[in-house]
Specification:
Elements: H1 2-5, H2 22-26, E1 39-42, H3 51-63, E2 71-74, H4 80-89, E3 95-99, H5 105-108, E4 113-116, H6 125-132, E5 136-140, H7 145-148, E6 156-158, H8 163-175, H9 177-193, H10 195-198, H11 200-211
Parallel strand pairs: 1-2, 1-4, 2-3, 4-5, 5-6
Helix pairs in contact: 3-8
């Protein structure tokens, strides 16, 4: 954008990714033997985060009489009442809303598949955290998310607002345990190999280098 719109020379641009506490999120991993799978999202309950499309995808699965997985919604926001009403109205008893929590680790550790159907996103720090915590990612094919998730290599990309895409992705995970675990492990291998881009210890040094 800077190069194309503002005509900034590329040698004047330094890209620094958002950094996270790598060691902390490594502690939220689950072993292959503990795969259930449990699905979840950690995000503000807002229209822009697209949680309603998750519920619509689960509704579609329920109509096929597929056993629905446990799905945890962590976060609070203006859409909570609408989302809870949709959940109750459609008999999605597998869905649990836990509200806003200070320590997301206790829930991230439970999750096997992190679903992030956002309609607009810069990079998505939550996705970086989930990758390091060794979760399989299903996320919208938008913005900076594409720099973290390559379809069928470091996760699964879906079209934003597309219920059918989400439904197919969730169904695939439920029906293909071994392949899903393999993709999850390959995703973690990628983020671990590229740790220097996302570990806050390295990111903070990059800021210092630029400032100096």
């Amino acid at each position: 954008f800077l190069i194309e719109y503002f005509k900034v020379p590329d040698f004047k641009i330094e890209v620094i990714y958002n950094g996270i506490d790598f060691e902390k999120f490594l502690s939220f991993q689950k072993s292959d033997e503990d795969w259930e799978p449990i699905f979840g999202i950690i995000a503000r309950l807002d229209k822009i985060k697209g949680q309603i499309y998750i519920l619509k995808a689960l509704k579609k699965l329920r109509k096929e009489e597929i056993k629905l997985p446990k799905f945890i919604f962590v976060g609070d926001g203006p859409e909570r009442e609408n989302l809870e009403h949709f959940t109750e109205e459609n008999g999605l008893s597998n869905v649990k809303f836990v509200g806003e929590v200070l320590d997301v680790g206790q829930y991230l550790k439970q999750i096997d598949v992190f679903v992030f159907p956002s309609l607009s996103e810069g990079l998505g720090v939550a996705i970086i955290e989930a990758l390091v915590a060794k979760k399989l990612i299903i996320a919208s094919n938008i913005g900076g998310i594409r720099e973290l998730i390559q379809h069928n290599k470091t996760g699964i990309l879906v079209k934003p607002t597309n219920v059918d895409d989400l439904y197919k992705a969730i169904k695939w995970v439920l029906e293909n345990k071994e392949e899903a675990i393999k993709l999850r492990n390959e995703s973690f291998d990628w983020v671990n190999e590229n740790r220097h881009f996302f570990d806050i210890k390295d990111v903070s040094k990059k800021y210092l280098d630029v400032l100096n």
